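seq as requested:
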Amino acid sequence: MRTFLFAAGVWTLSGCSTGHRFGIGSEYPPYPSHIVSESGTLVQDTVGGPDYPIEQFRDAAGDVLWLGRFVRRRPNGAAIFRLTDTLRLPPVDRTRFLVTGDCTLGGTPKLELLALVRVEDVDTFRTIYSVWRVDRRTGRFVSLPSTAGVTCANAGWGTP
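struct tokens:
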């Protein structure tokens, strides 16, 4: 089941001088002041389309993912993105970890996969709780019906 972060589809940016409403279709940065960035990754273009940033934030209700689409650069070179989708994550604690960009399906690397995995001291996560795919054509998160065949690299394994 999918729960969207934006009640009624909009936020009001409390720290933004423009005071514009924020939701799907809005351009960013800046970010709403009531969220805290946890992590992020970039699904780079390999199919002739735009790059997609995936950002994980925490707010009062828990963790949420944002999916954006690169739209342009500011004169100073900073990237501007358009919010295309959000995904409220199931509860994440010390026993679960979100892996982005380091998963395979049937042994084939799939940069567009994200998976909620069990934290283990292993080189490859094999206990997968949930898996989603970034649909680069639609700019949406798609929940996969099964975790079968999905594994994810533990990028920090073996480092002190």
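Residues 7-88 form one domain.
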